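User: I'm writing a tutorial on reading structure tokens. Could you give me a worked example: one chain, its sequence, then its tokens, then a sentence or two explaining what the tokens reveal?
Assistant: Sure. Here is the example chain.
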Amino acid sequence: MQCIDELVGTLRRFKNAVSTQARRIGTGTPAVAALESVNASTIRQEVADALDHLDALRHQMRVAFIALAVEEGASMSDVARTLGVSRQLVSRIARDIDAD
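And here are its predicted structure tokens:
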């Protein structure tokens, strides 16, 4: 859950930066200067990093769920339907789990 909280905080900072940037552009500040004033490149990287971290966590949770469901005897089709992914993806992840 900490990952989600961090992402929410990062997205709030991004929203504030975009609002500040828009306000400055609206008052005549050149676009590049407005971007620089809110450290746009840093914020963009923070958002990208937070989303990457969330995606990695989502994948770990998916793998753990698949491992548990398969151990409990669920079919690949049931697991895939529950997760909203293809049966082939579930099968591939299950094979990868068995290989480890």
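What the tokens reveal: The chain has five helices and no strands. Helices lie at 2-26, 31-37, 40-71, 76-83, 87-99.
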